[in-house]
């Protein structure tokens, strides 16, 4: 978990300025991880179920490594943090460390966009970013399948954190204008919610910043001097692929997370309101009962000669 935002402080964690700063930091993390990943071939074999034999496992090599790493990280509380979401949440061991006392930052929800993210990463993001193709996969004995998959895990976990931070954005915006959002949530107005959470100017800024970062991080700082001596060094990453990753997948899937979260934001609350109203004392009814009780007592006293 990145320490730039204090998730133990609810006011800090749900401040939109702090959230935006965290998202900017995650851009750096994602680009650097992707630069590490594209130094290896595409290696589609590691994404194909049963292409590599693993005892007691029927999925892909990537799924096996990702699952094993999640099991280890779960034991040191990673997935108890409100900004971390596992790809295999139903099969994680309990932590060996004592739980932290996290504040309640988000409304209880079941939103997890990791499976769609993983499919987009394997089928679209990687093929665009990698300079090699499936034909460059020469088999288990010649390629760095292990290193490739470990790099994939780092990329996927950073991307997962990024899109699920959409929940924090959605919660912060909901708290700014709960009546506005509650009306759209009750109407299941997904288009209205999307319009409310979208800021096209900010999205354009994000894409421009990503382009600049990808160019900067993907270029050897000595390349300009060496290029003058003959031949510019090739960039470490496809800048257009990085921008397209955000434009076509990261930003849209973050919005989907936000909308799905908001659609569950009132769950449980609407059911409790009628019950709360039933539990509230009726002052007029209580007064009638008091008057009736006083009348009964007075009548009993008269009958007993105590009037």
What is the mean pLDDT? 87
Q: Which second-level CATH architecture applies?
A: Orthogonal Bundle
Number of helices: 13
The share of residues in helices is 55-70%
Number of strands: 0
Taken together, the total number of domains comes to: 1
**N to C succession of SSEs:** HHHHHHHHHHHHH
User: CATH homologous superfamily name?
Assistant: Chorismate mutase, AroQ class superfamily, eukaryotic
Task: Tell me the structural class.
Answer: mainly alpha
GO molecular function, one term: chorismate mutase activity
Keywords: Amino-acid biosynthesis, Aromatic amino acid biosynthesis, Cytoplasm, Isomerase, Phenylalanine biosynthesis, Tyrosine biosynthesis
Region (Disordered): 271-307
Catalytic activity: chorismate = prephenate
What would you note in describing this structure?
The chain is an all-alpha fold and 307 residues long. It has one domain (10-272): Orthogonal Bundle (Chorismate Mutase, subunit A). Helix content is 61%, strand content 0%. It has 13 helices and no strands. α2 (16-37) runs parallel beside α9, α3 crosses α5 (145-164) and α6 (166-176) packs across α11.
């Amino acid at each position: 978990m990145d320490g730039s935002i204090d998730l133990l402080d609810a006011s800090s964690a749900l401040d939109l300025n702090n959230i935006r700063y965290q998202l900017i930091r995650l851009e750096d993390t994602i680009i650097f991880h992707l630069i590490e990943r594209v130094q290896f071939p595409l290696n589609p074999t590691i994404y194909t179920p049963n292409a590599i034999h693993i005892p007691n496992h029927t999925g892909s090599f990537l799924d096996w490594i990702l699952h094993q790493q999640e099991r280890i990280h779960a034991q040191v509380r990673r997935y108890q943090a409100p900004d971390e979401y596992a790809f295999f949440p139903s099969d994680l061991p309990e932590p060996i460390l004592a739980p932290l006392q996290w504040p309640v930052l988000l409304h209880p929800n079941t939103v997890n966009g990791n499976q769609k993210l993983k499919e987009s990463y394997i089928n679209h993001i990687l093929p665009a970013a990698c300079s090699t193709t499936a034909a460059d996969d020469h088999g288990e004995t010649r390629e760095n399948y292990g290193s490739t998959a470990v790099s994939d895990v780092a990329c996927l976990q950073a991307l997962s954190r990024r899109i699920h931070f959409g929940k924090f954005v959605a919660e912060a915006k909901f708290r700014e204008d709960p009546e506005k959002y509650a009306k759209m949530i009750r109407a299941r107005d997904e288009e209205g919610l999307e319009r409310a959470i979208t800021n096209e100017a900010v999205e354009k800024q994000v894409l421009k910043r990503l382009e600049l970062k990808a160019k900067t991080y993907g270029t050897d700082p000595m390349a300009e001097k060496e290029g003058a001596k003959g031949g510019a060094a090739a960039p470490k990453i496809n800048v257009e692929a990085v921008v397209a990753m955000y434009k076509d997948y990261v930003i849209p899937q973050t919005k989907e997370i936000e909308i799905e979260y908001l659609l569950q934001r009132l769950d449980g609350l609407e059911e409790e309101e009628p019950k709360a109203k039933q539990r509230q004392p009726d002052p007029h009814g209580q007064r009638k009962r008091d008057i009736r009780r006083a009348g009964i007592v007075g009548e009993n006293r008269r009958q007993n000669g105590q009037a």
